[in-house]
Amino acid sequence: MKCLLSQQSEGEVEEEDDLMPGTERESLARGMSSQKGREYTIRLALEKKQDQYIDLKGITVYIASWNVNGQSPGSICLTEWLSRTNEPPDIYAVGFQELDLSKEAFLFNDTPKEAEWSNSVKAGLHPGANYFHVRTIRLVGMMMVVFCREEIKDQLRHIAVEQIGTGLLGRMGNKGGVGVRFELNETSMCFINLHLAAHVEEFQRRNQDFHQIFNRLGFLVNDRVKYIKDHDQIFMFGDLNYRINPATIDATKAKALIEQEKYSIILEQDQLREQMRLGHVFSGFTEGPINFRPTYKYDPTTDNWDSSEKNRAPAWCDRICYRGGNLTQIDYTSQPQYKLSDHKPVSSFFNAKIKVINPARQRKVYEETLKQMDRIENEYLPQVTVDIPGTNQSSHSNRNEINFGRVKFMEALRKTFTVANTGQVPVHLEFIKKLNDSHVCKEWLKIEPVHSFIMPGETCEVELVVLVDKCTASQLNVGRDTLYDILVLHLESGKDIFITVAGDFERSVFGCSIAALVNMSEPLTMISPGKLIELEKGKMPVNHYDIPKELWFLVDRLYRIGMDKEGLFTMAGLQNELLEIRDWMDTIPNTPIPGNADSIAETMFLLLDCFPEPVIPFSMHLKCLDSAHNYTACKQLVRQLPAAHRNVFLYLTSFLRELLNHADKNGLDAKILALLFGKIMIRDQNYNAKANARVERTKATFIYQFLVNDDYGDDLWPEMGEELLSLS
């Protein structure tokens, strides 16, 4: 569908188009002032002409990365790693992984090693210059420290940091990334330190981690989000954990080839190189030639390969990749003389050219642009066409409809449309809030880009993404919200374009309440919308089950395949398996639950996280926190829970106690489980609330009481006892 929209001439009659009964489309929108819009248009027009007033200035960038295996630096000197260039670099970005492997760091993100390694880095910087500390950011064991030379610090603007975990539920910080971004003069630069999933066979999980980080990590700059892809120069580095394909080169053969320095033969079987060739990760990125020994795995304090029972094959786990114009890699190497860790540090030195404004030429271009704008504003009006593929629409109507069809929980759907500037003047487009709305669109919808500047003859592709997640599923399940929204695309000095977005949500057990689930004797897909609404209102209290059958199925499967799984509940599942398990739970076919133990464990967390009211209801949170340090008070609070919530709490803590009986194999610890389940069972009402470390500790303490005390059980559930664990 192509729809032509332009400023109406005086006397024209606009074609009527019903929006909704009794509502005028124009009454929904509000635009920016014309003066503000004009200034914005001129600024963007100037950006389009940058080549007329921009010069390129050379700087140097030093990237360094090291997985330190939880070790403290002690008296180690980092000069050989960080100061090996003749000339002092202008910018340093130094990343660490596994900075601290202690339970305290994992549980509460606290560690004294942040200061220890930061001080060691500062001491190891090139002595030929004075350096300014730009930023430090850390998430559990991932840390990055960024410095720049004192003489360029005033040229940095819009400095921002961000972090993202890719562990369980996409937020546990044992794996993920930390980032720093800024603009140096007119060039935006972004540095991302990564730690991706481990184990040789988990390359798909590493791919998944990369895409989560690349697509979700965004920096807030001037009230707008800048994603990694939005930067001129990008450096992504760290312990990427890609290995050598064991099916073609085993550890013995790899070591023999390494001794002959035949690295290229081994690198032909390198997982990262293969995944990049296939276009699965790091699209558009470059990695320089590797002419150094693998950086992993060594016996700590030696240069000997891994001699443990696992006998891990050597691999280049630690990598540096880059993307963007005006970047030249000078070298790429490792520093094998450092023996503190089972990894060797890597580093790379770059020449970069950044854009610098020539004020005199900019002023001249500005004056010419202003004159041009004055002339064309008097002669022409904005005119665009909107092309939405796959729709049939009269070219004289301003109603544009995009229908996503069937939408499932946690399964993103994307559609794009094109806006073309068919007029004679530059056009500034921006999606704006409707009258009395606080957001541009509903929570389940994402727009990219939110605003754009289109020169005559050019086009802009807009992507809409619909994703129903834990924040929106419950409202959609019971009809308090629908997949329907009206977007207002504001054309500066022209008309507002209205775009209708719609879809049909397939209801799911994810987002249903505990009270509703225990009253469902059938799979959710067999329950009518009306009955589900009645169940959620509590108007059909039958109590078919003591706990939701869906929860029982998940726990039962973990009993069968996951009790001895190392690190259960700390690793993310595979996205494709999570979707398969979702479908299974909504239909409950007569087949085993699909997926591996990690995927089932994450699905269980996701189910708990999606309850509209958590296991410990919001109204009881303060009392819960107050009683956390007194086990008797904790038990008394559990007795006061609604029956179904109490049963779920006891069922889960009984399962966790059994899981701890296998700690010699799964390596789990009561404190870790208490923290993880405290976050979910005593979930904050605001999903996006910033975590409070003291509150998180108190939540964990409450759960911990039920995992370690010997007198747990009979006095809390006298009527059911162990029968609950054998629900059928």
UniProtKB/TrEMBL annotation:
Q: State the superkingdom.
A: Eukaryota
Task: Indicate, by first and last residue, each region the UniProt record lists as having compositional bias (Polar residues).
Answer: 1-10
Q: What is this protein called?
A: phosphoinositide 5-phosphatase
UniProt domain Rho-GAP: residue ranges = 533-715
Instruction: Please state which protein family the record places this protein in.
Output: Belongs to the inositol 1,4,5-trisphosphate 5-phosphatase type II family.
Q: Which GO terms describe its biological process?
A: phosphatidylinositol dephosphorylation; signal transduction
Q: Which organism is it from?
A: Orchesella cincta (Springtail)
GO terms of molecular function: inositol phosphate phosphatase activity; phosphatidylinositol-4,5-bisphosphate 5-phosphatase activity
Q: What PANTHER family has UniProt attached to this entry?
A: INOSITOL 5-PHOSPHATASE, TYPE II INOSITOL 1,4,5-TRISPHOSPHATE 5-PHOSPHATASE
